[in-house]
Amino acid sequence: MFFKDINISYFKSIDNLKWTCSDGLNLVLGNNGNGKTNLLDALYYMCLTKSFLASSDSVLIHQDADFFRLEGNVEVLENKLTIAASFSSHTKKKITIDGEEYDKLSQHIGRFPVVLFAPDDTDLVRGSSELRRKFFDLLICQFDLQYLESLSTYNHILKQRNHYLKLLSIKEKLDITLLAIYDKKLIELNHYISKKRAETILEFKPIFITHYNFISSEKEKANIEYETDVNSDFESIFLNNQEKDIFSQRTNLGIHADDFEWTLDEKSTKKYASQGQKKSFVLALKLAQFTFLNLKKGIKPILLMDDIFDKLDDFRIKKLLSMLTENVFGQVFITDARAERTKNLLKNIPFNCFTMEDK
Ligand SMILES: Nc1ncnc2c1ncn2[C@@H]1O[C@H](COP(=O)(O)OP(=O)(O)O)[C@@H](O)[C@H]1O
Ligand SMILES: [Mg+2]
């Protein structure tokens, strides 16, 4: 898929911006603070109905306006469509395709697949398990709507159950049959979600390993394993844990506590890998996300690469450039504050360039 042109109004620091994009490589240049990342965020928003940085829509509105609007003409599998996304302080978020609104916003997710490379990606290795779950959830949600809906129901019920556990610990006389209703639904969803995660990891792993071997200069063996509480005895384990849940006022077991063990030569990447190895690891994860979504959907996702040349060393940049030269990707957006460096690196690849000017 690719954006043919975009029209941004009052999104973060961008008041008005119109740009005709190339269906190949696009460069977004300009000094730091000029809105390059904001432009990528606008593209991300049009694909996934949310920002990759902000958790609330209201902070995305330009400080001098009371709404934002994003519009993009896209081509996906030879269909020409117009995506429009808008939000104002008085109305709720609205996403339309050719002027038509969805019944549910979730129906938009995955129609316009996207993969983001961001400067803080190494947090995927160094940070908490929540980031790793989010990485795989976003991957699965972009090709499986049922997974997306199940996950959102799960999170909703989990919140209700946790709230109820808090009440139970205060007022002992509360009816615990309501807990049984939450439990039944959660157990069912735990089985479904963990099965999907396990299946996805199985398919994803060889793709990831191939990418890791390509971009890493060393010979270590990279691996990913899925770790979960959910197994065939999960129902009884979960129910036996009820007293502990009431005592700790939260649900201890379930897919919300899953993690993914990332290793190099069977040693934890988080604990033992060098900086360079960690970078290779996350770069391979992102490239694998691209390949995997491409395979699943038959559409090349757009790639948003934010300040990628700042974060990668020459060896990995060379590997990435070779993929760009060989047309592995579809539409790509790369931001960089250092125009000369980028133009030099990309001198053998045709690109379209947009400069975000100083205000
Ligand atoms: N809602 C907003 N209204 C106006 N400016 C904003 C808003 N949100 C963020 N910004 C501004 O955007 C700028 C950062 O833009 P960014 O895209 O990160 O720049 P770059 O990536 O080019 O370094 C900051 O100066 C920040 O204050
Ligand atoms: Mg930036």
Could you characterize what this model shows?
There is one protein chain. With 359 residues, the protein is an alpha/beta fold. It has 2 domains: 1-113 and 308-359, P-loop containing nucleotide triphosphate hydrolases (Rossmann fold), CATH 3.40.50; 128-298, Glutathione S-transferase Yfyf (Class Pi), Chain A, domain 2 (Up-down Bundle), CATH 1.20.1050. 44% of the residues lie in helices and 22% in strands. It has 12 helices and 14 strands. The strands form 3 sheets. A 6-stranded antiparallel beta sheet has the order 2-1-4-5-6-7, covered by helices on one side. Strand 4 (67-76) and strand 5 form a beta hairpin. Helix 4 (145-170) crosses helix 5. The longest helix is centred in the middle third of the chain and has 39 residues, at 177-215. It is globular. The relative contact order is 0.17. The mean pLDDT is 95.
Quick synopsis:
The protein is an alpha/beta fold and 359 residues long.
Q: Structurally, how many domains make up the residues?
A: 2
> In what range is the share of β-strand residues?
15-25%
Q: Span between N and C termini?
A: 32 Å
The appropriate CATH architecture of the largest domain is: Up-down Bundle
Provide the structure class.
alpha/beta
Mean pLDDT: 95
How many strands, which pairing sense, and closed or not: the largest β-sheet? 6 strands, antiparallel
Largest sheet: spatial strand order: 2-1-4-5-6-7
Measured on Cα atoms, how large is the radius of gyration? 22 Å
- The CATH class name of the largest domain reads Mainly Alpha
H/E element string?
EEEHEEEEEHHHHEHHEEHHEHHEHE
**Overall geometry:** globular
* Hetero ligands: adenosine-5'-diphosphate, magnesium ion
User: What fold name stands as the CATH topology of the largest domain?
Assistant: Glutathione S-transferase Yfyf (Class Pi), Chain A, domain 2
* Poorly predicted segments: none
